[in-house]
Design a protein that fits this description.
Layout: E1 9-14, H1 17-27, E2 30-31, E3 39-44, E4 47-53, H2 54-60, E5 76-79, H3 83-95, E6 99-106, E7 112-117, E8 123-128
Parallel strand pairs: 1-4, 5-8
Antiparallel strand pairs: 2-3, 3-4, 6-7, 7-8
């Protein structure tokens, strides 16, 4: 059997599901009716974002809970069509309560990006990549 390379659901372990749900709704994420007090699901153009209690997520994976490091080795990325869109999205995220991590700037690989963290420290990159344009659905187009 081959493993099909796709992600259907990204689940973030959060300290307070209700507070994190409110944050993501402020950003414009659309909550699914499949959500309940223990878990929130958001529609994301072909993928789903889930918010689940941090300790409950660790228990589900049979892992001990430990304090999360400031850098977890993972970022979620949202690519945009221009530098101006990156600037606007970054400012909006900060207005919604995101923690500014790195203001958008030109980066070494020839694009433009900045970072913010959600209330639980999950890192989001906002980027414009001129080498990987977006299709009509906002999906990155990579060369073969």
């Amino acid at each position: 059997m081959a493993f099909e390379p796709r992600i259907t659901l990204v689940t973030l372990g959060v300290a307070d599901v209700a507070a994190s749900t409110e944050f993501y709704q402020k950003l414009g994420f659309r909550r699914s009716s499949a959500s309940n007090d223990s878990v929130t699901f958001f529609h994301m153009n072909g993928t789903v974002l889930g918010l689940f209690g941090h300790d409950a997520l660790a228990a589900d994976a049979n892992l001990d809970t430990r304090p999360a490091p400031a850098f977890r080795g993972v970022s979620l990325a949202h690519n945009l069509g221009s530098r101006e869109e990156v600037d606007a999205a970054w400012a909006f995220a900060v207005e919604c309560g995101a923690e500014p991590v790195k203001a958008p700037e030109e980066v070494f690989w020839g694009g433009y990006s900045g970072y913010f963290a959600d209330p639980d420290g999950h890192l989001w990159e906002l980027a414009h990549n001129p080498f990987a344009p977006l299709d009509e659905n906002g999906h990155m187009q990579l060369p073969d």
